[in-house]
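TA notes, week 10

Several of you asked for a full example with nothing omitted. So below is the full record: structure tokens for the whole chain, then the designed sequence directly under it. When grading your own attempts, check the secondary structure regions first.
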């Protein structure tokens, strides 16, 4: 297992380095002068040149990249051109909302995906119709799901709020985690907890729907193949119940492809955060990134991209370890 962890760590560092190269190259290739953007359009050429020299933009690209990596390692992401705050401070402000949304969405996607996958494998009478629904549902874009949810649960039924993270009437106490669901419980504020949960339902379901359907289809296909193996027939011949055969003998061996799909879908979920947070006015990294793009705020765009990319790589690292745990054959590769 230690060999697997070592190889995955090397791959993780390599991927993060590649991501840094791509982000730096895109920033260098974009026909815009960051020094001009910082000092303003009315600044004189001498002021622009001085700022460019201060930031090292007049140095050769390899030197700029080395300085860029050094800043990344030390957490110095420069100042946002839009908010005039350090990008690292802005990320600490907006990241908890996205983290909370992503965690709830991931748990919801995992629960729905595994539940639907097991339901399809159980021989349910309507399994064929359910598979068609899964295929159709996977093709529905997230923005359409969000709009339909708002029309139904907010406009028509008046059950759920359509925007924001919590109602303005509540006084939010800064907690140790900055996750509203956790901190409201730690501070004994059940009213804040339930209001934050109501605000989470629609954006979390919107983000979780497509990943859940993909996980369900992958688990169903994997379980269908595993259930034909000899050891499953042996377990059945011993008189074990079908539920016991599936949960205790087949599920772990079918988990590998499901873990892989879950990791890929988490990446797609991070990409969908930008759209979903815009629609629901969710005060997270997606909304921050969208506003930064409108201002050509390259430090903010770079910092947000690096942070989301790092989260994706770390999650897939955890998925690789989970696969190695579920399938001992991977440890021997």
């Amino acid at each position: 297992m230690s060999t697997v962890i070592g190889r995955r760590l090397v791959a993780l560092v390599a991927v993060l380095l590649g991501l840094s190269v791509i982000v730096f190259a895109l920033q260098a290739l974009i026909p815009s002068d960051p020094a001009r953007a910082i000092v303003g359009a009315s600044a004189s050429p001498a002021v622009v040149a001085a700022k460019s020299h201060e930031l090292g933009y007049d140095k050769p690209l390899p030197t700029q990249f080395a300085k860029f990596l050094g800043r990344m390692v030390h957490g110095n992401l420069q100042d946002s051109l839009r908010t005039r705050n350090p990008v690292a401070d802005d990320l600490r402000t907006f990241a908890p909302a996205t983290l909370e949304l992503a965690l709830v969405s991931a748990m919801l996607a995992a629960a729905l995906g595994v539940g639907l996958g097991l339901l399809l494998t159980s021989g349910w009478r309507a399994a064929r119709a359910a598979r068609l629904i899964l295929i159709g549902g996977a093709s529905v874009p997230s923005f359409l799901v969000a709009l339909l949810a708002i029309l139904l649960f907010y406009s028509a039924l008046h059950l759920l709020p359509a925007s924001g993270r919590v109602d303005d009437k509540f006084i939010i106490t800064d907690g140790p985690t900055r996750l509203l669901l956790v901190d409201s419980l730690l501070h004994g504020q059940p009213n804040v907890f339930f209001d934050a949960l109501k605000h989470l339902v629609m954006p979390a379901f919107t983000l979780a729907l497509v990943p859940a359907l993909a996980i369900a289809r992958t688990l169903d296909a994997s379980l269908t193949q595993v259930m034909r193996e000899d050891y499953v027939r042996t377990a059945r011949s011993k008189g074990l119940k079908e539920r016991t055969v599936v949960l205790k003998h087949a599920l772990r061996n079918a988990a590998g492809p499901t873990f892989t799909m879950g990791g890929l879908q988490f990446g797609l979920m991070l990409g969908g955060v930008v759209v979903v947070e815009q629609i629901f006015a969710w005060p997270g990294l997606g909304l921050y990134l969208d506003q930064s793009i409108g201002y050509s705020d390259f430090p903010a765009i770079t910092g947000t991209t690096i942070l989301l990319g790092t989260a994706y790589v770390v999650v897939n690292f955890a998925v690789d370890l989970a696969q190695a745990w579920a399938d001992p054959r991977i440890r021997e590769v």
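The mean pLDDT is 81. Use that as a sanity check on your answer.
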